[in-house]
Specification:
binds iron/sulfur cluster; binds FE3-S4 cluster; five-stranded mixed beta barrel; six-stranded parallel β-sheet; single chain; alpha/beta; binds S-adenosyl-L-homocysteine
């Protein structure tokens, strides 16, 4: 803490009476927060609102659901509007622009706070694990009330209570945690689909990537905890789950009774009520034949595999510490396509990694043309402080990167459009996800292969799987007609 803070006597008493068991402790703090929120609400004559804003990946989004779970249990009412009594940014730091968005919006939040004395501003997530970020907050953002990181989300209700009863900035960061705390409240964004963490952290240390530093070492959840969670979700009406981890293919290592990711998938498949299973992310170096076989025989695993390649050049892959070669990756794709001919393959690609030569870049282009991805996320290399690649020589000039990026994007888009055309005219299973944002007479649904289709249907179909004829391909999405009912 930057200054010596005098603890409020009421808070001292609350802390002294707290149970030590993690779950009981957090329940205790939720009930105290609830009393205080009720008191404030009575005083103001209105409900207190909260807004949780997610900046990062699916794992970040799942954490936001845990944060919202605590806030709602404490009596806050969810709002999308940042003019709320409690606003929290769940941050991402994977690329510089993710950080810039947070700094930019924080200034805006301070103007809102000036008009609402009740307002609490909190920051959490990956960015907060960085020392330089916390220094900047302490120095330049005194109006931020609470800061915590990725390893202590399970302590959020306690931190909330500390914030409610203090008038100084609360900052709690753990460097890593071996602990996985189960059974805390959670509020799902969607009724019919949910992410499920199967593991946390990452041990791969790709040289460009900050995730292992901000998410800590890889640890898998116990299979029984995962299965129980999925069963509960199914009982609650969820039909699609997305198993989440930075590298799901190495799931199970380090457990007392190690099991493979493919074995876990088979267990999840048995759960009644779950109709679709997705997972993110697969690292090519660990993708097993066993997994391909399980996918080929499964009725529930979606026909989509996200297999980040990052680069098509073996030299660059080596310097990225990806631990596979171009040839290995292409052989893997061939094997997957043989066993799963209708699978959609998607990927992540980084352009402008230090040392990327024209030839390296051409290798990436040729790999993209050879694999023919259904879609690809393309990223400009972003230098992350503390990662090995940040100090590599031969950082690539911006204009060269931009030119390569544009060329790659064009190729990726042409291929995606061509692949999408192949499905036009087919009737496919679609999970109806939401009312179309632009045209409320339409709904938007997702195919097993993760493409999106818009079609006319009643909103009562949201959350169910229906048959849709894909009438027309618009490049990145389809227009269709529902054929059931
Ligand atoms: N665990 C996943 C990826 C998580 S990060 C995996 O290994 O595939 C998502 C994507 O962000 C990565 O696949 C990579 O393409 C991109 N990325 C990560 N660090 C980056 C950086 N420093 N600059 C640009 N893109 C980056
Ligand atoms: Fe980052 Fe590599 Fe881990 Fe993915 S596998 S999170 S890219 S270090
Ligand atoms: Fe970002 Fe953290 Fe996810 S850095 S990509 S939110 S794991």
């Amino acid at each position: 803490m930057s200054k010596i803070n005098v603890i409020n006597p009421k808070l001292a008493e609350i802390l002294a009476n707290a149970p030590s068991n993690d779950v009981a402790r957090q329940d205790y703090f939720i009930s105290i927060a609830k009393e205080e929120i009720q008191r404030r609400s009575d005083e103001l004559g209105r409900k207190l609102t909260c807004c949780v804003n997610t900046f990062g990946c699916q794992m970040n989004a799942r954490d936001s659901e845990k944060i919202l779970g605590v806030l709602e249990a404490a009596g806050y009412v969810e709002s999308e509007d940042e003019h709320s009594d409690f606003v929290i940014y769940n941050t991402c730091t994977v690329r510089e622009n993710a950080n810039n968005r947070v700094w930019g919006r924080l200034g805006y939040l301070s103007t809102i706070k000036k008009k609402n004395a009740q307002m609490i501003i909190a920051l959490c997530g990956c960015m907060m694990q960085e020392d330089i970020v916390r220094e900047k907050i302490k120095k330049s953002y005194p109006y931020v009330d609470l800061v915590f990181g990725t390893h202590n989300i399970y302590r959020f209700s306690e931190l909330l209570v500390q914030t409610l009863f203090s008038d100084y900035q609360i900052m709690e960061i753990l460097d890593d945690s071996k602990k996985i705390v189960e059974e805390l409240p959670i509020v799902r964004k969607y009724a019919y689909k949910s992410g499920v963490n199967i593991m946390f952290g990452c041990n791969n240390f790709c040289t460009y990537c900050i995730v292992p530093y901000v998410r800590g070492r890889e640890k898998s959840r116990e299979p029984k905890d995962i299965i129980n969670e999925v069963k509960k979700l199914a009982a609650d009406g969820v039909i699609e789950i997305m198993l989440l981890g930075q590298n799901v293919n190495s799931y199970g290592k380090g457990l007392e009774h190690p099991i493979s990711f493919a074995e876990l998938l088979q267990e999840v498949e048995k759960i009644d009520g779950i109709e679709r299973i997705r997972f993110m992310t697969s690292h090519p170096k660990d993708l097993s034949d066993e997994l391909i076989d399980v996918m080929a025989h499964s009725k529930k695993i979606c026909k989509h595999l996200h297999l980040p390649v990052q680069s098509g050049s073996t030299n660059l892959l080596k310097s990225m510490n990806r631990r596979y070669t171009r040839e290995h990756y292409l052989a893997l794709v061939k094997k997957i396509r043989e066993k799963l001919p209708d699978i959609a393959l998607t990927t992540d690609i980084i352009v402008g990694f230090p040392g990327e030569t024209d030839q390296d870049f051409e290798d990436t282009l040729s790999l993209v043309k050879e694999v023919e991805y259904d879609s690809a996320f393309t990223f400009i290399y972003s230098k992350r402080t503390g990662t090995p690649a940040a100090s590599f020589e031969n950082q690539i000039p911006d204009d060269v990167v931009k030119e390569r990026f544009d060329r790659l994007l064009k190729v990726v888009q042409e291929i995606s459009a061509k692949k999408a055309m192949e499905y036009t005219g087919k009737v496919v299973d679609v999970l109806v996800e939401e009312v179309n944002a632009q045209d409320p007479s339409l709904v938007t649904g997702r195919l097993s292969n993760n493409s999106v289709v818009h079609f006319a249907a009643d909103k009562k179909f949201i959350g169910s799987i229906v048959n849709v004829h894909l009438d027309e391909c618009k490049g990145f999405y389809y227009l269709g007609t529902m054929v059931t009912e």
